[in-house]
Amino acid sequence: MPNLYLENQLCFSLYSATHALLRSYKPDLDKLNLTYPQYLVLVALWQYSQLSIKEIAEKLLLEPATITPVVKRLEVKKLTKRTRQKDDERVVIVSLTEEGQALRSKLSDIQKRVACDTGLDEGAFNTLNKTLSDLTKNVSAKIPS
């Protein structure tokens, strides 16, 4: 059954590509003592300035319980700070420290290098990114809550 060959598995192609991209990020993130999930939280905060734990989880398509320890480790590294929302103390707001803001240009350079490593020109890169975003949205809509 050809549909069960590895080379015909979209999920395997995505898994392999993701694994390769993460390996490409790893040496540079290791030098900064960051994990990939920590990098993603920082990227979200650079884009939105401050977010609640719940909002970060929604942006990264993860559960809040997954985000909380990542944010706590970033806080220990003095890259983020957490505060309680004044009108609802159950809501934890995360923002960047000066040290967290200062990493932006270094991590931007890393992202540019990894994008270059893909071998895709800007148009193909943007098209692939949009296609994968659409795929995620479409498949997620079919998953029962």
From TrEMBL:
The lineage of its organism: Bacteria, Pseudomonadati, Pseudomonadota, Betaproteobacteria, Nitrosomonadales. It is found in: Cytoplasm. Residues 7-137 form the HTH marR-type domain. The keyword Transmembrane helix does not apply. Keywords: Cytoplasm, DNA-binding, Transcription, Transcription regulation. Pfam families: Staph_reg_Sar_Rot (PF22381). This is MarR family transcriptional regulator.
